[in-house]
Design a protein that fits this description.
Number of domains: 2
Number of helices: 21
Shape: elongated
Strand order of the largest sheet: 3-4-2-5-6-1-7
Radius of gyration: 25 Å
CATH topology of the largest domain: Rossmann fold
Low-confidence stretches: 1-5, 133-157, 216-225, 265-300, 594-604
Helix content: 25-40%
CATH class of the largest domain: Alpha Beta
Largest sheet: 7 strands, parallel
Bound molecules: adenosine-5'-triphosphate
Mean pLDDT: 80
Structural class: alpha/beta
């Protein structure tokens, strides 16, 4: 592994065994996962979690939080004497915000439990076709049917020991699947807690905690539910790379006198365990009522990997597309096999750029025949967003993970917790909005001490966003855009003789924009571009609070926005279709009475 940071800034100078973990489990960590020594976070969290205390972990992205909670649980479960059985039901519940994260944690569990065949992992998540899954499990295709189960199959195969779940589908089963046995539930883990709450799952989480009798005031198993495991105390763990009011509230209602890991004294006020039983669904803005509050993120530092190089790309609206393609080309040609993730604000924008990058062919000399053109970017391109079929999401997730060099175009659905190995560059083509989101997006690179660079696209009118990030201790340097554009040869010339000062008048920009507009004028691409344009404006309008001041839709020149989608049409034409779409959306929303959560998820 190439590392920029010293290993002692990432890894602890002790062994997994010295933390008190079972020797067979340590072997699994080494042989199956390739982990020789614990990371610093693991070295801090594992002994505390083994001791049975409630824990709140706030550590930078990519520091190994998953093993920090899974290893102690497996240690205890494999140690139970007599061994746990199927009929004992579920012992541990890992709640995660997205389906991809659900699969990721489940896959790690599969590896770790290889030698502990009596501990059964399972997962449930929205979007799965239940009958198809049942059939697949019955036939035993893919997985070992006896060990790896989904809760939708609980009627057929009760007894998942460690369950990974997204909140919505879990609640459904808690209410409706009578054979879901949870009287022995000992651990509840909230992974990426802030994202679970941001997605509007606060009410579901409260209901889950109530149904499982695991709110802070009920943290010891109910007296009348005596089982052979009732001597064990409930233990809840909460993990998050960023903190906010809602996470603080969840901590207060679910954690009993927790040990804080990764939190310095500045970031919290004393006595987190003060009981407050408000609602996670409501906005927690009245701090005075909550004395045990973690200080708000607005003044705090965010945990960004120290070795990450963060740059911003200052580019006027009309040249955005050309600059994106140019930077991608530059990165892909400069390095042997880079993996790049590009974030967009909407599903339609992902679809448009995906088709463009997968199909756009190009030649330096515009006179050449179609056969002589080459792909503008020559690497495998993937896309990931919330409007895709579950099966396609799964294929993308696995595919991009496996590739050595590839491009992933995605919405924020991929911003949290996903661990794609060897991602070298993150491009935030559309701005992330909240600074929290910025941190999570860049956290997909520079994981565990590896190198990583990030690029944030900003228009000249949006430069105040840098100050917003600065408030959170995040500092970016300017990307030398003109220098990079100058390095592209044009019509056979290696360098331009004349020094170009303006980006818009740069011969490379003009030439590429012309080629793009011609390509996008084809019917299929044009339709994708128009949809992307409309949804992009909607997302831009949806910036909240303080950010509205920076990302002002009225400062946008619609013609320039259209140009950034390779559209030649008059802005008024496109603007009209946008207005019609906005009206239609408002009408639909009124009719359906869409919840806050659905508004958030539809964006991703
Ligand atoms: N002890 C270890 N030794 C080597 N690699 C490790 C170790 N622990 C974890 N890793 C690897 O480090 C990477 C990051 O781990 P993980 O996904 O758990 O981080 P995280 O802190 O949960 O990140 P995020 O906040 O983005 O969710 C993974 O690729 C994982 O396999």
């Amino acid at each position: 592994m190439t590392k920029k940071m010293g290993d002692n800034e990432i890894f602890a100078s002790c062994s997994f065994a010295s933390l008190g973990l079972d020797p067979t489990l340590c072997e699994q960590l080494r042989d199956r996962m390739g982990f020789e020594v614990p990371t610093l976070v693991q070295a801090q969290a594992i002994p505390v979690t083994l001791s049975g205390r409630h824990v709140l972990v706030n550590a930078a992205t990519g520091t190994g939080k998953t093993i920090a909670y899974l290893a102690p649980i497996i240690h205890h479960l494999q140690n139970y004497d007599p061994r746990i059985e199927r009929s004992d039901g579920t012992f541990a519940l890992v709640l995660v915000p997205t389906r991809e994260l659900c699969m990721q944690v489940y896959e790690i569990l599969q590896k770790l439990l290889h030698r502990f065949h009596w501990i059964v992992p399972g997962y449930i998540m929205g979007g799965e076709n239940r009958s198809k899954e049942k059939a697949r499990l019955r036939k035993g295709c893919g997985n070992d049917v006896n060990r790896y189960l989904m809760l939708s199959d609980m009627e057929l195969f009760p007894g998942i020991s460690i369950l990974v779940a997204t909140p919505g589908r879990l609640l459904d089963h808690l209410k409706n699947t009578s054979s879901f046995l949870h009287t022995n539930m000992r651990w509840i883990i909230f992974d990426e807690a802030d994202r679970i709450l941001e997605l509007g799952f606060g009410k579901e989480i409260e209901e889950i905690l109530n149904l499982l009798g695991s709110r802070q005031n009920e943290s010891i198993g109910k007296e009348n539910e005596v089982s052979k495991f009732s001597e064990f105390k409930r233990q809840n763990l909460l993990l998050s790379a960023t903190l906010n009011e809602k996470v603080n509230h969840l901590a207060k209602i679910s954690l009993d006198n927790p040990v804080m890991i990764g939190l310095d004294d500045k970031k919290m006020q004393p006595n987190l365990s003060i009981r407050h039983f408000g609602s996670l669904g409501s906005d927690m803005d009245d701090q005075s009522e909550h004395p045990g509050t973690l200080t708000s993120c607005s003044n705090g530092d965010y945990n960004v990997p120290a070795q990450l190089v963060q740059k911003y790309v200052k580019v006027s609206c009309g040249s955005r597309l050309v600059v994106l393609l140019s930077i991608l080309k530059n990165l892909l040609e400069r390095e042997a096999s880079p993996k790049i993730v590009v974030f967009f604000s909407t599903c339609d924008a992902v679809n448009f750029h995906y088709s463009l990058l997968s199909e756009f062919q190009w030649a330096l000399n515009s006179e050449v025949t179609a056969e002589m053109k080459q792909m503008f970017v020559s690497c495998r391109t993937f896309r990931l967003h919330g409007n895709m079929e579950q099966e396609d999401r799964r294929t993308t997730f696995q595919g991009f993970k496996a590739e050595k060099s590839a491009l992933l175009l995605c919405t924020d659905i991929a911003a949290r917790g996903l661990d794609f190995p060897k991602v070298r560059y993150i491009i935030q083509y559309d701005s992330p909005g909240e600074a929290t989101e910025y941190v999570h997006r860049v956290g997909r690179t520079a994981r565990l001490g590896e190198r990583g660079d990030s690029f944030l696209f900003l228009q000249p009118v949006e430069m105040d966003y840098l100050q917003d990030l600065q408030k959170h201790g995040v500092t970016l340097i300017e990307y030398p855009l003109l220098k990079v554009l100058d390095s592209f040869p044009l019509r056979g010339q290696k360098q331009y003789m004349k020094k170009v000062v303006s980006l818009e008048m740069h011969p490379w920009v003009l030439s590429l924009q012309k080629a793009l507009e011609s390509f996008i004028s084809a019917e299929k691409m044009k339709k994708l571009a128009k949809d992307a344009f409309c949804s992009w404006i909607r997302a831009y309008t949806a910036h909240r609070g303080e950010l509205k001041r920076i990302f002002m839709v009225k400062k946008l020149h619609l013609g320039h926005v259209a140009r950034s989608f390779g559209l030649k049409e008059q802005p008024s034409l496109v603007g009209k279709s946008f207005q019609m779409q906005t009206k239609k959306r408002k009408r639909d929303q009124k009719q359906k009475g869409l919840s806050k959560r659905r508004r958030v998820t539809s964006k991703t």
